Amino acid sequence: MVYSFIVSDAHEGLRLDVYLAQVIADVPSRAFVQKLIAQDRVTVNGKPPAKSNTKVAVGDKVNADVDPASLIAPDIIAQDMAVDVFYEDADIIIINKPAGLTVHPATGPAGRRGGTMVNALAHRFQELSDVNGPVRPGIVHRLDKDTSGLIIVAKTNTAHARLARQFEKHTVVKRYVARLQGAVQFDQGVVDVAIGRHPKYHDQRQASPEGGGKTATTLYQVLQRFPRSTLVALYPQTGRTHQLRVHMKHLGHPVLGDDRYGRKAAFPRLALHAQSIAFMHPATKHYVEFSCAVPREFLDPNF
What gap in Å lies between CA 58 and CA 10, rounded to an integer? Predict the structure, then answer.
């Protein structure tokens, strides 16, 4: 079976063997991946890499020819869980994901197997794309666990590939709403500050205004002002990991309820919601847009 992956910002700069050990479900070990590379069963952008320590870059297409019998069974559990299907047709599904729901199971023998959006999708739908491997059926992009809102799921591999290309070219238009700490000074503005890995906390990112990070741009617009906080619309022009949360912290107004970049106790949840998403439909080639309501708690004047 050939596994095919597009390297995302979250994995940029990793060694090839480390990257594949993370994204291929249930590989027995990193040495297993290194053996695949040595046998020329791995390609990067169509060519075998020179070594296992080759660094991957955002947008690289990595293929790995793996015998499924050599892997631990992925064991995706189909679970009868409530899932809000916002829209569905023969090619795509739009899910309105609640805050607190993880998108897909973790890889590796010790990874979490149940209670994710993928487990719910496996129970409800007979056909989902398998481009990203058996533990990420249908998943074209993702939202952080604590971010709510609209996420696209692909039913077919053709739809998945066409949607993935749109994300790579940054032609998918996303609008988020967020409740921010304090009074944002201007009614609208742009945060154009690079984002890099945090030197100490590897699961976090930081603004890198002096260089060393990847370019990142976010547009913002004030929607409503409250005594101690501000409701804004956010339009990411790039897709860096934790971009909106990092940019709002850099602006001096972290997202309420953010346990990594702000104060978790400031709000009942992370006050970030993917309200709308617009893209070219992979089958009809028509431009479509889906938009949902702002969560009620985001309008509560007590915060």
Answer: 9
pLDDT for position 151: 98
Per-residue pLDDT of 203-217, as tens digits, reads 889 998 777 788 999
Tell me the C-alpha distance between 144 and 257, whole Å: 14
**pTM of the complete model:** 0.78
* DSSP H or E run through 27: none
pLDDT at 21: 85
Least confident among 22-36, 121-135, 232-246: 22-36
| Residue among 131, 135, 137, 170 nearest 153 (CA) | 137
**144 flagged as catalytic:** yes
- For residue 74, give Cα distances in angstroms to 68, 70, 130, 156: 10, 11, 13, 20
Rounded to whole angstroms, the Cα distance separating 247 from 217 reads 8
Q: What domains does the chain contain, in order, with CATH numbers?
A: 2-70 (3.10.290.10), 174-274 (3.30.2350.10)
Query: Among 144, 146, 203, 300, which one carries the catalytic annotation?
Result: 144
Please name every residue paired with 233 in a beta bridge, in sequence order, or none if there are none: 177, 221
